[in-house]
Design goal:
The protein has no helices and six strands. With 70 residues, it is mostly beta strands. A four-stranded antiparallel β-sheet has the order 3-2-5-6, with no helix packed on it. It is globular and about 30 Å long. The termini are close together. The model has no long low-confidence stretch (mean pLDDT 93).
Length: 70
């Protein structure tokens, strides 16, 4: 699982969660609900490697990279 701790600027609500591989190819896209508390995203289906995650709603976009290790 990928654990995310939103900052104070991330408003609660519905976000689109997109995960891209290191080449920029879209691997996963789904809607998630953010409540302002820590949350997690299941990445167990991903192979080991480097990825970029984007969380976006109509007003905000957040992005980060992460490394998945088995």
């Amino acid at each position: 699982r990928l654990f995310i701790s939103p900052d104070n600027q991330m408003k609660p609500g519905s976000y689109t969660c997109e995960i891209f591989d290191e080449k920029g190819a879209l691997i996963s896209s789904k809607s998630i609900q953010v409540s302002g508390n820590d949350f997690s995203i299941d990445v167990s289906n991903l192979q080991s490697g480097t990825y970029i995650i984007n969380l976006a709603n109509k007003d905000q976009i957040y992005g980060a990279s992460f490394i998945k290790m088995d």
